[in-house]
Amino acid sequence: MRSAFASTNVPDMEEEILRHRGRVVTRADVAFIRTLIAEHPGASRRALSKILCEAWDWRQPNGTLRDMVCRGLMLELYRAGQIELPRVRYITQNPLGRRGAQRRKPAPALVDTTPLNASLDAIRPLEFRQVRHTWEEPIFNSLLDRYHYLGYAHPVGEHLKYLVYALGRPIACLAWSSAPRHLGPRDRFIGWSSEARRKNIRFLAYNTRFLLLPFIRVEHAPSHILGCMARLLSQDWERVYGHRIYYLETFVDPERFRGTCYVAANWIFLGLTTGRGKDDHTNKPNRSIKQVLGYPLRKDFRCLLGETAVAEVASGASGCSHKAFIADSGSEQR
Q1: Is the pLDDT of residue 96 over 60?
Q2: Alpha-carbon distance 38 to 35, whole Å?
Q3: 89 pLDDT band (50/70/90 cuts)?
Q4: Does residue 320 carry a pLDDT above 50?
Q5: The domain 106-327: what is its CATH number?
Q6: N or C end of the chain: which has fewer CB within 10 A?
């Protein structure tokens, strides 16, 4: 009788306390975190998050610690009364949290704005430079801010930035980032489950910006650039983030553009957005409806993306090389 009574009072250490960004936190995990905090009394919240990530081997696909996500998890446990955290020692000003005029605009970049009217053959080879975290990144930011109708917006999550050069001068900008988590036309086209989408969304890249500078008049250049990017992007993504890309996607606003260059580059029209956005709570359109276009990078993309445990697959040589990537092969933007 005593044994049965005792067992009912022993807490289940595998009981789920919460879920944070896909990670299940059990009562045993909470006990471990409390012990870790007690063993490092002088550590800051930032330091504790890195220590916990090391202990759990909690890393991004490229091997870096997920310490920012870990801080969010620890804060959620703190607010739920599950753990005690040291007081906040300093507050980091987040430039992405600024709105409108408060946000610092990119400094103007000086580039050659002489009109370029030529054939595609006359400006080959094109040079593709991945400029994120390089001295050329401010040029990229400035050109988008000045010449793209949406301006420059700092991307979040995994992302890469490209400047395309011809005859020694920049002619185009392309930005790629993590894909939206829920997108009806795309999800139906791939045919993956919710679990597969959650695990494999990182294998998709979203073309957030494509700008051919307004003083460049080279017929077929936009579609040629997109074709070159399709051969290049996955390699660079793997080099930076530790995994390849199997599928590309983008939106086109039909009230502004026809998406001709995407169609010419063999992108596939999949349908229309709902016009509600990811934070909608009204189920009513609150923004312009966009065309959804996709471009599979592999014939077996459905098989790869539909698996709940995707194995990295090495692809053959693409025939493209770069320092930059050199491509031999009317102004448009999105």
Answers
A1: no
A2: 5
A3: confident
A4: no
A5: 3.40.630.30
A6: N
